[in-house]
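User: I'm curious whether this sequence folds into something compact or stays loose and floppy. Could you predict its structure so I can see for myself?
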Amino acid sequence: MNSKTTSNVSAPNRGIDEVLEQTELGSFVAKHKPVIISVIVAAVVGLVALAVYSESKRNLFDDVSKVVYTFEKDVLSKYDEKIKDEQLKEEFLKLLDSAKGTNLIFATGIKTVDLLMEKEKYPIALEILEKISKLKTSNSYLTYLINSRKAVLFENIGEIDKAISTLEGMSLSKTKLLESKRYFDLGRLYLDKGDKEKAKLNLDYLLKEFPTEEEAKYAKILIKKI
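Assistant: Here's the prediction. I'll summarize afterward.
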């Protein structure tokens, strides 16, 4: 009798637990998908700022500095009020031609992409990011900043294979930031695709190498689906 009672109570409890787990997982993914942007920015913003400062201080009022300042003041700060999507893209492409070959374009370009992502203007953000990513830089932090955003944008527009490819390509970077987040994202994206083998491979690696990270808790929830 006691056994039967326990069984009857535990079954609905398991159902409730599963619902809570899925709700918590969904909330985590929704909140942490863009976190890769803000956390990485916090980690390397000093380096980017230093690169910009080091370049600008040689001649604070050189042509490039003026063009970048004008773009941020007259275009970026007025976006979504007086400046709309097409004009922003057009003005950024002009800036790209003027500031090409300097670290200033990377800093301002990433700032532009972040603003567009905040406004959920994913296609134009990706278009601008693709332009930036074609510029040459030996700074692995800048490359990481670009690729981390690219992966999020590809996912947001439904290009899951490209998001996965970008995340996997980041393993070759000299810069290693938020690796637990990268493996978690690979796991959930592969699971979304139905590739349970690769999903489990990435999630198992996450649990083995980063057991104390927050992503490990949610990796265990995902593994239950496999």
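Summary: Residues 1-14, 42-47 have pLDDT under 50 and may be disordered. DSSP finds eleven helices and no strands in the chain.
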